[in-house]
Amino acid sequence: MKTTTRVKKINGHEYLYEITYYYDKETRRTRQKSRYLGKNVNGEPVRVREKAKSPEKVYSYGEFIPYIHAVKSLHIQEILGAHLTDHEVRLFLTLLFAGIHHPKALNSPASWYDGTVLPRVFSGLKITSQNISRLLKKLGEGSIHLSICRSLSLIPESGYMRISMVDIPMFQETSWHHGVSHHGIEPVALFYDNIENIPVGYLSSAQYLVTSDLVKAINAGLNLFSGKKGIIISGKGFSSTMNLYGAIFSETPVIFPLDPDHNLIKNEIRKHRADLMHPRNLKIFRGETLFVIPVNIALETANFKGYIIYSPRKEEEIRERFGQDIELILENLNGRPMYKWVNPAEAMADIAGTYEPFLQWKVQNNRILVDVKRKTLGRYLKNCGISVIITGDPECEWDTCLEWLEERAETERFLATYIRNFQVFPLSVDSDTMRNGAFLVAFMAHVVNRWVLEQYAKSGLLSIYTAEKIHLELMKIRLVGLGNDKVLLTG
User: Fold this and answer.
1) Where are the alpha helices (DSSP H) in 334-421?
2) Which end of the chain, N or C, is surrounded by fewer C-beta atoms within 10 Å?
3) DSSP 3-state of 448
4) Burial class, 476, CB count within 10 angstroms (exposed 0-12 / middle 13-18 / buried 19+)
């Protein structure tokens, strides 16, 4: 029998068949049998149907959809491409997505990357600690972050910005020379476009400890990032008169919290305490019941505006926590024998911790007896549940001020979590440079995340679902990889 291979073209596709010739004794003629070999791929047969019968791999896909769209809409690849190679851009975006979707993956991004759709989006990417270290060092050198932020700030055109002051814990450092181990806190000013509601730039403010100097630096930053006017959101309650007056009389308005026990506001709280829970002052913020009283405070030759805000939920939580903790301390200490080698004051301080100022003790019959300083505790808790916001812009209503302060705190948590998990490289002599590079990746992740949340809000989705619920629903969408290099979309 003679065997040969023949190519058949069916519907524009070429297929290979094995043709076998044989002699038919009955008909006394030569006949042929054909056997399907597979699709013609570079002269080799590939059995498409058989190879595609069972899935080979499942990729996470759905949760990436809005964030990939954000990268495209904000032209982030093009902005990064002006400073980085194509491989570096893809590595940058992979680290960005890892920090958003699975912060712990920053410790081992290569393992996480293989189970996601990213190998199909950023194919041929080599994720090694050496590549990441080189990228972070390049990002942290010079002023590359300013160039990237300036390009980003050209996308919105409003020119009206708010500047959020956040404190970011950087990587743990150990100074063997001085024998000190500490966590560095890096104060950073984040510049948000107030219309598009996304961050467009940042500046380190570590060197500006005096408020007036900080405001001058922020005004310079406004010009750098195409801003025309701005408002500063600070989470810091200014305790010194110099910094407090600097914030109140600043040319750029500042919104900041003030301690309810501060001399500037405590008389106003005393005056309005009886009306604090009056129905006319009842407001709803993010589903929570609050009582809000606007106040005008005279200082020197000027008046400034503030809001006294009372949260019944917050007061209940604080009082309940204090009650439970102090009760536990009393149970553990009361009647405890005090031997000669035991210092009762030290034992009291060690067990009570931060609650020590509210407790009194004595030793009787070699046993310690502990009780509560009720007046001291009452004075401390009299303002629990009460917060005060001062605004340098009289047009900012209480809910806007509170929303921006809440946003500042959420941003601080997001960036702190991102940085804390960014332990993908060993600290070296270039650790400051690499930390700066890591923060640039964290900042761009925050930009993308904020853009997605803003789209959810504009579409009305957040009135129905939380962002977490949307994320969980999107996670149901998977890509199923088949053996013939094709994929199926689930969901």
Assistant:
1) 344-352, 374-381, 398-420
2) N
3) helix
4) exposed
Helix (H, G, I), strand (E, B) or coil at 157: coil
Nearest one of 222, 382, 378, 241 to 300, comparing CA atoms = 241
Distance of CA 315 to the CA centre of its chain: 28
Backbone angles phi, psi at 91, to 5 degrees: -70, -40
* Plot region of 43 (φ>0 → left; ψ -120 to 50 → alpha; else → beta): left
Listed in sequence order, the DSSP H helices in 105-143 are: 109-114, 118-121, 129-140
DSSP 482: P
437's tokens = 């590079």
Q: What are the Cα distances from residue 143, in Å, to 77, 117, 138, 242, 425?
A: 19, 33, 10, 32, 22
User: CB neighbours (10 Å) of residue 214?
Assistant: 25
> Which single residue is written with the structure tokens 């009289």?
394
Report the distance separating Cα 306 and Cα 354, nearest Å. Answer: 30
pLDDT in tens, the chain (491 residues): 678 888 888 877 788 888 888 777 778 788 888 888 788 777 777 766 555 556 677 888 999 999 999 999 999 999 999 999 999 999 999 999 998 988 788 778 888 888 888 888 887 788 888 888 899 999 998 889 999 999 998 887 777 899 999 998 765 444 333 333 334 678 899 999 988 899 999 998 878 878 888 898 898 889 889 888 899 999 888 878 888 888 888 889 999 999 999 988 989 999 999 888 999 999 999 889 999 999 998 887 778 899 999 999 999 999 999 999 999 999 999 988 988 888 989 989 999 999 999 999 999 988 999 999 999 999 999 999 999 999 999 899 999 999 999 999 999 999 988 887 765 555 444 578 888 898 999 999 999 999 999 999 999 998 889 999 999 999 999 888 776 667 777 76
Q: Which residues contact 96 (CB under 8 A, 6 or more apart)?
A: 441, 444, 445, 448
Residue linked to tokens 């914030």? 247
CB 269: neighbour CB atoms within 10 A? 20
3, 41, 40, 42: which is closest to 20 by C-alpha? Answer: 3
Beta strand ranges found along 55-140 (DSSP E): 57-60
1 secondary structure, DSSP code = -
- Kindly state the tokens that stand for 149: 């932020």
